[in-house]
Inverse folding.
């Protein structure tokens, strides 16, 4: 267990992929306008890899990459839902889709827009994003 954090559980639509993640009950969610986040409406919060556990469905995930191939966009082969992914900004962590969490553990969601169309500049100028995947 992690002090001050709650265990959230979630997964894809069909239930083939399930995970747990330790994070605050008050989520800091990024709304990115890069090409893929816009198309998928990918809003996400970032956690260290040590606070994420895939419970089932590793064999039901497939991965899409593009451009630098650093971000690992994983989604369910059955229903197509991306519940989490490895962001380019935080390759040592996970971006978790808050709308894929089970009900009951989230108290509030604060959304921050990030200019993914100018990704390098946005990440360079952001004061905390790189630290969000640090334990």
């Amino acid at each position: 267990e992690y002090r001050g954090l709650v265990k959230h559980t979630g997964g894809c639509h069909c239930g083939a992929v399930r995970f747990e993640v330790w994070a605050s009950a008050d989520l800091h969610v990024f709304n990115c306008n890069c090409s893929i986040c816009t198309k998928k409406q990918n809003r996400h919060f970032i956690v260290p890899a040590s606070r994420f556990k895939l419970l089932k469905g590793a064999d039901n995930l497939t991965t899409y990459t593009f451009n630098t191939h650093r971000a690992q966009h994983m989604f369910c082969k059955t229903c197509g839902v991306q519940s989490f992914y490895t962001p380019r900004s935080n390759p040592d962590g996970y971006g978790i889709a808050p709308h894929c969490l089970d009900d009951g553990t989230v108290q509030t969601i604060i959304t921050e827009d990030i200019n993914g169309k100018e990704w390098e500049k946005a990440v360079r100028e952001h004061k905390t994003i790189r630290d969000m995947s640090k334990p």
Q: What stands out?
A: The chain has a mean pLDDT of 95. Residues 75 and 82 are 4 Å apart (CA to CA). The chain has two helices and ten strands.
